[in-house]
Here is the input.
Amino acid sequence: MTTLRVKIESLDEVMSEVRAALRMRPDEHPEEGVATLSFPSWELMHRVLAPKRLEIVRAMAGQGPLSIREIARRVGRDFKGVYSDVDALLKSGVIDKAETGGVEFPYDRLHIEFEIDAAA
Here is the structure.
């Protein structure tokens, strides 16, 4: 099973993880089947992964390439609204254009992790 892990982290945190991955020995492996997508803030993540967009991602998970018309049918929404949401998901890197046409969410699961700190 493949998973897209969505996180909220700063550029410094992302760069730290990249440096750590580059220092790994050949016999050390990062978690297999897991890709990570980072957002710099809760607000941006919530804007990109709004409830209707998450519904689209859920309908696409593990399904292979789909046309926007088919996605709209699966989520019970009009083409124009789904097209706009799919475009935003493509631009943010959540979903991909399929080589054979259409779009795809090339994962079976979406895992969102974040922390909420106490107010200052």
The chain has one domain: 3-113. The radius of gyration is 16 Å. Residues 87 and 95 are 9 Å apart (CA to CA).
